[in-house]
Amino acid sequence: MNTRLDPVLSRIDGDLDAALARLMEFLRIPSISTDPAYREDCTRAAEWLCADLRSLGAEAELCPTPGHPMVMGRIGSGAPHLLFYGHYDVQPVDPLDLWDHDPFAPVLEDRPAGTVIRGRGASDDKGQLMTFVEACRAWIAEHGTLPCTITFFFEGEEESGSPSLIPFMEANRDRLSADLALICDTTMVSPGVPSISSQLRGMLKDEFTLSGPSMDLHSGHYGGPALNPLREIAKLIASFHDETGRVTVEGFYEGVHEVPADQLAQWQSCGFDEADYLAHAGMTVSHGEQGYSTLEQQWARPTLEINGLWGGYQGPGTKTVIPAEAHCKITCRLVGDQDPDKIRAALRAHVEARLPVDAKVTWDLHLDGSPAAVMNTARPEFEAARQALSDEWNREAVFAGMGGSIPIAGYFTTILGLDSMLVGYADDDDRIHSPNEKYGLTNYHKGIRSWARILDAVSKG
Amino acid sequence: MNTRLDPVLSRIDGDLDAALARLMEFLRIPSISTDPAYREDCTRAAEWLCADLRSLGAEAELCPTPGHPMVMGRIGSGAPHLLFYGHYDVQPVDPLDLWDHDPFAPVLEDRPAGTVIRGRGASDDKGQLMTFVEACRAWIAEHGTLPCTITFFFEGEEESGSPSLIPFMEANRDRLSADLALICDTTMVSPGVPSISSQLRGMLKDEFTLSGPSMDLHSGHYGGPALNPLREIAKLIASFHDETGRVTVEGFYEGVHEVPADQLAQWQSCGFDEADYLAHAGMTVSHGEQGYSTLEQQWARPTLEINGLWGGYQGPGTKTVIPAEAHCKITCRLVGDQDPDKIRAALRAHVEARLPVDAKVTWDLHLDGSPAAVMNTARPEFEAARQALSDEWNREAVFAGMGGSIPIAGYFTTILGLDSMLVGYADDDDRIHSPNEKYGLTNYHKGIRSWARILDAVSKG
Questions:
Q1: Which of A351, A368, A332, A343 is CA-nearest to residue A254?
Q2: Which one, of A380, A290, A334, A341, lies nearest residue A199 by Cα?
Q3: Which of A140, A326, B43, B262 has the fewest Cβ atoms within 10 angstroms?
Q4: Would the CA dihedral through B129, B133, B134, B135 be positive or negative?
Q5: What is the rounded radius of gyration, in angstroms, for the C-alpha atoms of chain A?
Q6: Mean pLDDT confidence for B305-333
Q7: CA distance A54 to chain B (A)
Q8: Cβ-defined contact of B311 to A314 (cutoff 8 Å)
């Protein structure tokens, strides 16, 4: 019997329909940050959040940036002071024809594994960030206040490289100071296994255009003598990996460390279902670097992935063209001490060294990158949260690696000197960044309850 | 003094403005055959042509097909009976932003090398086919009739693989019977050098989708273990050629013959300006098969070209996606006795043998292909035309090879038992299939005069 927590949990259960209705309203705003066409929708999503924080009794405001606005809010008193981070922007929705519904007209769907909330952002990250806001709402409704101090910090550029984030943090160190950052943007290692992410991969993004002929050419008049940028870009991409799946860019593995045996043993018993993970993506085997387990490939090995590739004619029928240009978008996931700037330079040098005569390469000017991050799991809040999560999910919570990148965790350390704790309730099959994104209704409900338990656990004593 | 021809030539000179106005009107019809959105425009172009033939006094009609209609017409009497072929459809216009003007609002432009007609189809093939129609118009205006019999045969699917052509020819052998076919859809070997094309490359088209994951994946959650179709399609494309530019598909070179030394010597003196040809396309060297001259690479060597390649995210910004699919459009130019069906089977086997586990390939179902063609230059009409062209251009006319494919020449032989003579007035820098297509006003004018001379020359005796 916990007289402070139990009524909050009961209130959360009783208020679930209203909490769901609020999330649905939030999901209807198409806040795609990477596409300028949705700029006003991003602002609208920020305003919605701001209003919702005010409805809790928080001070809250929109903070303009050269890009999409930040939302900042504060409520509660006493120790600890927690800085909660989430993002209100979402991924683009293409290919739109693969969605069963309008991505921004969210619906509840009954599925064999339980009811899901279907729509863009349901999991990444609107549903996740609302688990925390709703936990706060229930605490305040029940107790009139929170057991600690919360600063809310929401950005709207997470899915587009967070160009405004570092300048904003540097200019607002005081308003962002706290004892610990909480981030809700991660998955559970396996359905129903509560997870605290203890290490994240970093990321760098790059993009180039390979130009050959001075204009599109006719493949009859010029086929043979002409340099074909599509063929050349394919050769370049094929040159990025060797036959074992290892990246061939010189210096790429500098700073990459092997996973210690004890950590590997812990990971192997954390409930990760490899066959299920692969089957979910339609695969029977793991296609990464040979000599590493699927979990290591996902959590502890760096990647160089092509995310977009295009050139020439894509319409119906045939066009006998040798195009003047070909284009390629790349992201690298980084681990250990890999330096994003060095990797970018090495990647560019790799391409430039392989350019044929008459070809030239033009690089994108956006240079964002973030190194990998390892959390400080020795802090007492981690054990308190682990216990709280175990209680809620009736399953031992685990410290897990993560394949994704959450650059903000690194910035909290380097800019604010702040440790981060990452707790999320998403499932690997939530189809985030894909058509038909979903978030389990149970994940939403138990996510809210989990945060209530964590607030209780870290605010004791 | 040629009392039959000279007044026709004078009339052509005097009527040039009107002939140009007619072409401009024709060019305004956006008859893009490969894109279903332009279906009615294709019919409109056919109707325009039909009406224009009737204005000469020809019998003319639209002949429906499952695709775009054929236009057939007849006028004149006596020997020889010539079958004139051209096509009223044009290439797509993308990328539209690289056009200086609306592609279907043709303009006259004064350029350092002379006035040009700028617009889609100006050269390929509306401008070219109108040279012949205008020559006939001048003959008829001057003499009340033609010196021989002409059957006009215009199709509207040349730029989209001519799916209706063979069935139509097979069903209309009688209406298409003649002594010789004339085709006006080719270039001059160099500006001002009148050319009769004596050999054409064949072509086959293919297209495939490479599928990997069962849906688009997040490059954080799945980057590493996931099969990336963009990387796999790049490896496949890179595998099509070896380091010397030779196609590696097994059996690809079956039926390819080396060019005889005497023919090579003739080509080398035909006025082809290699440096100019390369510079026009922004190249300093020839990128084709090592060991062959630029002319051989263009006229006498087969190719395997990628005309379109796409997958993943192409919009602004970044999307950390591993896409489910990648796509590729291919054409091969064929020479000698290469068999399109065999090459297609070999290409597909090459791809299928290299598919990784968990990947699958889906091929396009359109199976059109045509072998290379060699003209019967021993026929007396060839020497008569060569002399007529030399007279008009004040430059010895040449028998040249050609890199492009005009499948109709092969069909005339196999279906109608008819030899073809290909005479065209396009320049290599006409940017056909590219933005800002053009046709020299002089080429149009002298093209009309050339056909008048050829009609005179082949109708004597």
A1: A343
A2: A334
A3: B262
A4: positive
A5: 23
A6: 95
A7: 32
A8: no
pLDDT in the model for residue A407:
83
Taken in order A298, A299, A304, A307, the sign of the CA dihedral is positive
Local confidence band at B262 (pLDDT 50, 70, 90 cut-offs): confident
Distance from CA of B321 to the nearest CA of A (A): 5
Size of interface A-B (CB pairs under 8 A): 342
Confidence at residue B461, expressed as pLDDT on a 0 to 100 scale: 56
Q: Which residues contact A151 (CB under 8 A, 6 or more apart)?
A: A72, A73, A74, A81, A82, A83, A84, A175, A176, A178
* Cβ <8 Å between B309 and A311: yes
A41: Cβ contacts below 8 Å, ≥ 6 apart: A29, A30, A31, A32
**Which H or E element spans position B59?**
strand B59-63
- The per-residue pLDDT for B272 is 87
Q: Say which of B34, B213, B333 has its CB closest to residue A316.
A: B34
Task: Name the DSSP letter for residue A424.
Answer: E
Task: Tell whether A305 is within 8 A of chain B (Cβ).
Answer: yes
Q: Which residues of chain A have pLDDT under 50?
A: none
Given CB atoms, is B256 within the 8 Å cutoff of chain A? no
Please state, in angstroms and rounded to a whole number, the distance separating the CA atoms of residues A184 and A129: 6
Q: Residue A156: name the closest of A41, A25, A22, A27 by CA.
A: A41
Least confidently predicted of A394-403, B167-176, B266-275, B277-286: B266-275
Contact B317 A434 (CB under 8 A): no
Q: Is the dihedral of CA A90, A95, A100, A105 positive or negative?
A: positive
Check CB contact under 8 Å for A306 and B282: no
Please give the backbone phi and psi of residue A377, each rounded to the nearest 5 degrees, phi first. -75, -5
- Identify the pLDDT of residue B31: 98
* 3 state DSSP class of A390: helix
Side chain identity at residue A116, one-letter code: V
Is the domain spanning B202-256+302-369 CATH 3.40.50.620? The answer is no
**Phi/psi at B264 (5° precision):** -60, -40
Cα gap A124→A437, rounded to integer Å:
8
Number of CB atoms found within 10 A of residue A120's CB:
27
Tokens representing residue B255 in the block:
């039926």
Chain B nearest-CA residue for A317:
B34
Q: What is the sign of the dihedral through the CA atoms of B235, B236, B242 and B246?
A: negative
What kind of fold does domain A203-256+302-369 have according to CATH?
Answer: Alpha-Beta Plaits (3.30.70)
- Taking only the tens place, the pLDDT of each residue in A236-250 is 999 999 999 999 999
Q: List phi, psi (to 5°) of A422.
A: -105, 115
Residue B390: which of B446, B330, B314 has the closest Cα? B446
Q: How far apart are CA A91 and CA A107, in angstroms?
A: 18
Whether A241 has its CB under 8 Å from any CB of chain B: the answer is yes
Considering the segment(s) A6-200+372-458 as one domain, its CATH architecture is 3-Layer(aba) Sandwich (3.40)
Q: Give me the percent of chain B exceeding a pLDDT of 70.
A: 100
Residue in A closest to B217 by C-alpha: A434
User: Tens digits of per-residue pLDDT, B329-382?
Assistant: 999 999 999 999 999 999 999 999 999 999 999 998 877 788 999 899 999 999
Looking at the complex, report in whole angstroms how far the Cα of residue A95 sits from the nearest Cα belonging to chain B.
9
Closest CA to A264 of A286, A294, A289: A294
State which residue of chain A sits closest to B404, comparing Cα positions.
Answer: A220
Domain layout of chain B by residue ranges: 6-200+372-458, 202-256+302-369
**Assigned token pair, B32:** 């893009």
b/e string for B363-401 if b means 16 or more Cβ within 10 A? Answer: eeeeebbbbbbebeeeeebbebbbebbebbbeeebbbbb
Tokens of B292: 């062959």
Cβ-defined contact of A240 to B223 (cutoff 8 Å): no
